[in-house]
Amino acid sequence: MTVTVLIADDQAVVRAGLAMLVDSQSGLEVVGQAADGLQAVRLAAELVPDVVLMDIRMPLMDGLQATRRITSRDGGARTRVVILTTYDLDEYVFDALRAGARGFLLKHAPPEELLRGIHAAVDGGALLVPTVTIRLIEAFTACRPRPVRRPPALALLTPREHEVFDLVVAGRTNSEISRTLAIAETTVKTHIGHVLAKLSLRDRVHAVIFAYEHGLVAPSPPPR
Hints:
alpha/beta; Arc Repressor Mutant, subunit A; five-stranded parallel beta sheet; 10 helices; WalR-like; DNA-binding; Tscrpt_reg_LuxR_C
């Protein structure tokens, strides 16, 4: 099955480079390109791509607003938005994840990481890069009010589900969780599905956000 991709970025050279990378891969196809947020929303509605690679700062409508509009149609079930960012846009990334994005990619990331992010979104997950994603969420939840008590929904998790949840929050992949707990990857996926359902979370990214917002992980000082 071919995975269709819409690229939204106001820089033509960036769009061209991403399109060349995506189209060079078997099973991936660029079906459209947008130079601003409004065009991204319109093309997403017309083309219904599997994934939108979304820049943050664009004219007419920024990537954050465009992400909200696209994901609000069906909760992001059909078209998944993956944010393209650079370090100086970190504050917007957190809000984009809250708006329904399925993760984010750094524009200067290696090609294989960009492709991995696309496939992760299609598979219903999200690209969680421990060295970047966790640091971002730590930095931008550190200034938010910390809850006084643990959320009641945590009591619904079994001991094994708690272990899996903690490893997801730590940014571990399914294969890493499998090795750590000495269980099959299919079992890991089952446990993650149960955790997300019991905590009413959309995906792994929101599991991490949930942990930081509810004080389950103590944020470290933002990087200098």
